[in-house]
Amino acid sequence: MRIRLISLVALAAAGLAGPARAAPADYSVVARIPGADGSWDYASVDPVRGQLYVARADAVMAVDLATGKVTDHLAPAQRSHEVLPIDKGATLVETDGTSGTTRFLDAATGAQIAQVATGKKPDYAYQDATTGLIVVMNPGSNAVVLIDPATHAIVRTITVAGGLEAGDSDGKGHAFINLEESNALAEVDLVAGTLMRTIPLTGCDGPTGLAMQSGGTRVMSACANGVATVVDAASGKLVQTLPVGKGPDAVIADPTRNLVFVPAGRDGNLTAISTADPAHYAVVATIPTQVGARTGALDPRTGRIYLPAASYLPAAAGQRPQAKPGSFVVVVVAPKG
Predict the structure, then answer these.
(1) Is 2.130.10.10 the CATH classification of the domain at 41-290?
(2) In this predicted model, what pLDDT tens digit does every residue of 8-43 receive, in sequence order?
(3) 3-class secondary structure, 29
């Protein structure tokens, strides 16, 4: 854009030149790690012990990122949804959808330490940095359950209807949670145990993945219809809508590099979004990955992203496609240079 009479340098000095351009993200697929057949859900990386964990239908899968060694069945599971490393990687928190429990496992052996009945279909879980509690979404029970990881006791339960999906905290004791069925965002007070408000996500169909950004001031949600919404946490105002691939199920944040990644299972790509300017996020790359790669995890040490996926057989009319036997892999996406 050409500006008459006033130079861009002068505008920049006055703080009026507008947002800085986001640098492009140069990433590509560098490897595929094979694993046992079966479905999967969320993945996580423990940077302390250098382990990747994938929640599988019948087991907790582990990958040693230094050696590439795969342990397909570190621990048995019944439709596992989340495997969360805590205690500097010594303990794993696993949500078991079929049994309705949240289990604490020894990360070295897979042995069960404790089992907590949390409700119907426990799914996404994370550890709140302010309270130290494990926050478990139970969409089958319309309940957010808070567990003390030291005593394995339920501290409180918060009723939230609308299809609980992923959540994250703002660093002030509040959590924002996607409501997939309501196309909305819930804000809850984890200390008081109350639902504070519900924020409509206009233009978002089926919000799933979520991550707090910009020091807890922005909430990014990935939507099934191929957009990511950005909400101001204080006002609840929708401030941006960004294009991403269709069929995402995660928002993967890399605060060190001021990037966020949204994997899209239907389109088979990974959208990289720059968060360097909190007032203006920008898509900086669309990285081809693989159809089915809808969740994933980041290794903060290297910037590598790990995306579980599989190839699919042609689906019969009205039926869901089935994974091709022997095709499960973890797709490894890495920055160049």
Answers:
(1) yes
(2) 333 233 333 344 556 678 999 999 999 999 999 999
(3) strand
